[in-house]
C-alpha cells in the first residue's frame, strides 16, 4: 500500500516529541493513475483525426486546391474526420454525465418490445446495406423492465449497432428477451450475431473505455471505443448487469439483465 507521512514537532510542549500522521493514499494513487491513463487516451483519440484534418488542409493549401477532383475528395475526408471528432466528444460527454450521476434518469416501466422495435427500425437500413437479417424474437412479448426510456434506447442501439458493424455481409443479428433463468425478478435481453466473435482474453476488457480488439478495424467502421462502456454504466445505473459470451466460431452474444417492472 502507498502511505504519506506527515510529521509535526511538538514545539513548546513540556516533553520533546512529534505527532506523526500516516495517510493511506493507495486509492488516491489508483484514481490518479486511472485519470492519467484516461487523459492520455483521450488526447490520442482526439489527435488522430485532427492530424488527418491538418494534413488534408496543408495538401490543399500546398496546391491541390487547384485540382477540383482532389479538392472534393480531400474536403470529403476533412468532413469525415470532423464527424468522427464530433461523435467522440458526444460519447465522452455522455459517459462523463452518466458516471458523475449528473444525468437525471427517470426510472419507469419500459416495454422491451417497443424499445426493440424502435431500435430495429432505426438500424434496419444499416443492416440492409450489408444484407444482414435483423430480427426480434420475444420469448415473452409483454415484459417490461425498470429503466429510463432514453437510456434503454442507447443500450439497445449500441449493442445492435456493434452487432451489425462487426458482422460480415449476409450475416444475422437477433434480439431475444425473456425472464431470467437465474433470477425470477430479472429480465434478460440477448443481442446475438454471426460475426467474428471476441477472443476470451478480451471479453472482460471490451467494456473498458477505449479498449478495442482491433483498433484499426474499429476506427475504420467509425467506432469511438466508448459504446460498451456507456452500455455498462447505463445498465449498472438501472441495477442490472451486462456480459458477453463468445464461444469460438459462434459469433457474440451480449446479455443485458435488468430488473423486471
Ligand atoms: P467501438 O466504438 O470500437 O465499437 P465499443 O466500446 O462499442 O467500441 O466496443 C469495444 C470493442 O469490442 C470493439 O472495438 C470490438 O473490438 C469489440 N466488439 C464489440 N461488439 C462486438 C461484436 N458484436 N462482435 C465483435 N466484436 C465486438
TrEMBL record:
Domain Histidine kinase residues, every copy: 41-261
Q: Supply the enzyme class, top level.
A: transferase
Example GO biological process: cellular response to phosphate starvation
Catalysed reaction(s) here are:
ATP + protein L-histidine = ADP + protein N-phospho-L-histidine
EC number assigned by the record: 2.7.13.3
Give the UniProt entry's GO cellular component terms.
plasma membrane
Q: What keywords are assigned to this protein?
A: ATP-binding, Cell membrane, Kinase, Membrane, Nucleotide-binding, Phosphoprotein, Transferase, Transmembrane, Transmembrane helix, Two-component regulatory system
Cell location: Cell membrane
**Its gene?**
phoR
Name used for this protein in its record: histidine kinase
GO MF: ATP binding; phosphoprotein phosphatase activity; phosphorelay sensor kinase activity
